[in-house]
Amino acid sequence: MAETLANTRAVREAMADGEVAYVRVAAESTRSVSGSASVVVAHADRTVLASADPAELGTRLRLGNSTVLEGRAWTGDRPTGDGRAAVAMVPIIGDRGQGRLLGFVAVTREYPSLVEGLASAMPNLLTYLGLASAIGILGSLLVARRVKRQTLGLEPAEITGLVEHRDAMLHGIREGVVGLDLRGRVTLVNDEAVRLLHIPGDALGRSLDDLGVGADVRDALLSGDVERDRAVAAAGRVLVVNRVSISNRGRAIGSVTTLRDRTELLELRRELDLTRHVTDTLRAQAHEFSNRLHTIAGLIELGEADEAVRFVHRISSSRSEFSAAVTDAVRDPSIAALLIAKASQAAELGVELRIAPESFLPVLDDELSTDVTTVAGNLVDNAMDAAATAAERWVEAGLGLVDGEVEVVVRDSGVGVPPGMEREVFRRGVSTKEAPAGQRGIGLSLVHLVCTRRGGDVTVTSRGGSRFTATLPVTEALVRS
């Protein structure tokens, strides 16, 4: 408005000719048409010629920091009685001469109030609000459809109930459950798994190394293969591990492993094995004694009394020599009794059981003695089965204390363990012998568990037969004088 009024030819000529009346009419007409608060026309000396306020006529208009007197248009604002107003000032340049500055036009318009601004913006605001609402509704429908598809059509209340039911079931079962992602971090764990593995309760999101999980358990949990009833030692207990990989839409996302505590069951099995050893030994001895009694009875019936006496002395001497060798090398009575009893069982199979010359084992603590008895009995049984089919049939057992460990070494004259199965033979159910499912692969796995539970190990090599070496750490407190 200021530029339009200042550039009007008639206004410029009226300013040059001093026709004040025309200038005032033009200023008032501009104010009425534009709706501005005021339209002021002043001389170059700031004397007001035209204004809607009669009190301003003839006064000098304050310009503040305006540059209008320099011949340049200027916009800004200035204070008013109710606040501040926008101001535009445009110079009036004459047409005659060199473009002399005749004066200037100042148009003032008050800023609209908040209510006025909202009222003026209401039509556009309603349009934008309607458009945004339509887009929001459409987006909400699309998001709801996607969420429904991802949640299998379940409502939020149903999802909440499902999660609560899953947590209650997960923490209520007696088996330990551990879920791992592809990086080996725990994504799921229940209370029983925390107890069995002795890990912190805040295990979610942490790796097995951070949680201090043992090497055997970690190997079973991170195994790339499906694990079925794999027995491992963890924190003094024997756990049975079952592991399966899980995937989503064909993409591997991790694994789930269940853990069962079988320590008590294995203790009972060990006692049962000891009872079975005694029973087998008694049966072998009964069979052996029966044959010898028949021989003695036959010699007496034939009238060969002297030969019967020599036969009795011969078998007594042989038994006494082996018993003396065992008791000299093995001072622990339980282990010595086991080896002496195994001699009768070996004789029935046609296998020679002998003690290694360098063997010497003192009396052990009751619990350690039971473990060594289990290890030695199972290794000797396994060796006798292997040697029974060989051309030369012998089994040699060596026991002693080596570098703070009880070392049990059992050698046999069998064909040995097939190459590549040196570690597999200690897994439950794995056997190199033909037998119905479930009837083999128990003894060596039990030996492995007993050794690893005490912090030891068992290994096998095959050179001219098998050589099993089992070690069980021992302290001075476990060795009796």
Produce the secondary structure layout.
Layout: H1 2-6, H2 9-17, H3 20-34, E1 38-43, E2 48-50, E3 74-79, E4 84-93, E5 101-110, H4 114-150, H5 156-172, E6 176-180, E7 186-189, H6 191-197, H7 208-211, H8 215-221, E8 227-234, E9 237-248, E10 251-261, H9 263-301, H10 305-329, H11 333-349, E11 352-355, E12 363-364, H12 366-387, E13 394-402, E14 405-412, H13 443-453, E15 457-462, E16 466-473, E17 479-480
Parallel strand pairs: 11-13
Antiparallel strand pairs: 1-2, 1-5, 3-4, 4-5, 6-7, 6-10, 8-9, 9-10, 12-17, 13-14, 14-16, 15-16
Helix pairs in contact: 9-10, 9-11, 10-11, 11-12, 12-13
Which terms summarize this structure?
5-stranded antiparallel sheet, Beta-Lactamase, alpha+beta, 13 helices, 481 residues, 4 domains
Offer a quick outline of the entry.
The chain is α+β, with helices and mostly antiparallel strands. The chain is built from 13 helices and 17 strands. The termini are far apart.
Describe this structure in words.
- The chain has helices at residues 2-6, 9-17, 20-34, 114-150, 156-172, 191-197, 208-211, 215-221, 263-301, 305-329, 333-349, 366-387, 443-453; strands at 38-43, 48-50, 74-79, 84-93, 101-110, 176-180, 186-189, 227-234, 237-248, 251-261, 352-355, 363-364, 394-402, 405-412, 457-462, 466-473, 479-480.
- The strands form four sheets. The protein has a five-stranded antiparallel beta sheet with strand order 2-1-5-4-3. A five-stranded antiparallel beta sheet has the order 7-6-10-9-8.
- With 481 residues, it is an alpha+beta fold.
- 45% of the residues lie in helices and 24% in strands.
- The relative contact order is 0.06.
